[in-house]
Amino acid sequence: MNRSIPSALYVLLGFCLFHIVGVMSYVLRVGRLSSVPIYDDVYYLNDGQTRLELLDRVGIFRCLADFFIFNPPHAPFTALTGLFGLMLSAGADWGPYVLSSGWLLFVVLLGWLALRELEPWKRSGVLVSLLAVPLFGTVLSEFRPDPVWGLMVGFTALLLVSANIVQMKASRLFALGLLVGASIIAKPTAAPAAALMLAAGLAVSLCLRVWVQSPRSPRAAMRAVAVLSLGAACVLLPYLLTGGPAILAQIRDVMAPGSVWRTQTSAWGHISYYLNKGAGTPVLGWVWYASVPLFVLSLTWAALTKDAKALCTMAGLAAATLTAYLIVTLSPVKSPMVGSFLYGAIIASSTWCLAFIVMRSRVRGRIALLIGALVFITCWVPRSAVNRNDSSIASINEATYAVLPQVLDAMRAKPGGSALVTAPGPVYSGTVEFMSRRQGIEWKIIGAPWETWEPFEQSISSMDLIILAEAGMVGQSLGYDFPGVRLQGRLLDTLRARADFKGRPLYTDKNLRSVWMFVRNGAQQ
């Protein structure tokens, strides 16, 4: 068996390489990298650019101090990927996406470790089939923390509930605790949810193991939990001490009553949001159809064979998945990215159930790999949430490429100025910031998330340049209802009436609505 480990791993890595190249090719040709960078990805691209510029100016030590103390990132692993990815690509936006392949391989490694009782060829077969699950492609096609976080938390839960931590060495328990802490802060704004989900799964599986094993050892279990918690605390506490206040502020902002991010639907809409086929299949693919049958078959098989160890693991997985479902259902904010938390748990649970069935069956290792390869060949399709052929994305590209050259010329005429982008799209503030910084232009770019007139009125006097998009333009808001969009007409009339600004439309869409640029008199040579 030891000799087969390298061969099975090489085959698995070969499929991973095909997956990475295939998805990246699609993203470059049709997906996000075929279009101008927009939200939410561009937020993390700009963060990576800021940290790379800081590294260039002050060196490694002060960059690390900024990262850990003065300016903790919104998502630490995504921030590191952005920094090193942009370093790799010399500032081009493709670098962080390519470097995200490292997180894909890390999740596959967690899966390999979680299926440690399965022989190598069977392990490879199970994991190859998982590469056809769309969420594994989203890790590469979307540069944001949610997909990696969902899979990390899911497979960390699988490692926790499938291991008998009472019998683990202290060093391995501590290492597992470090992984738990890292999974929780992969998306810090959702850290309480991840911690609760992992705790629920561990509590159920551990209590059952202590109850069924002989002799019972509750004290040993408590010691194991203590060591595990110590490892997690070594990761969590340093980050929360510096980044905790900012995280809490963002949670309050997103969850606040009246927030634009809240999903307005009925109680049944909240309950069924992540359970309907339209939401589940684009993320889970074949797992959407197989997850329940796999769980029922595994549970029946384990019960009939009185496999107490497997039943404890399945109870822990069920508890973790149910907890994840309750959290995302009760949350007023819903989206496919938020759903990564639940879907990651479902994928991890299905992985273990499939592995259990393969292990208990008489299928030979290479046959299991062949079946996994057939699933991959049948179900693998590259996807991206952004498609350049979509009318909204096409309008965003067209508007940005029409507006940006003249905006950049105006910025070059007055170095160090300030610009206000008054509406979310079709030209976005993050897009202007990222693309102007790539040209070496250091301007302060401000987006306008305001809901009332007063902030718009007050900000005008301090701006050198204003980019305004009339309400109702194609590519605007991308499905969200931003109250500030309704103020664009009033703002346009105000700016046109002011003598200290000169404005003109730079782009007009098919609805005959325009993107305007207003430059303060004297700001442009």
TrEMBL record:
What is the protein's given name? Glycosyltransferase RgtA/B/C/D-like domain-containing protein
UniProt KW Transmembrane helix keyword:
yes
Alphabetically list the UniProt keywords: Membrane, Transmembrane, Transmembrane helix
> Does the keyword field hold Cytoplasm?
no
Organism, scientific name: Variovorax rhizosphaerae
Stretches assigned to coiled coil: none
- Annotated membrane-spanning segments are 7-28, 94-115, 124-141, 147-166, 173-189, 195-212, 224-241, 286-304, 311-328, 340-359, 366-383
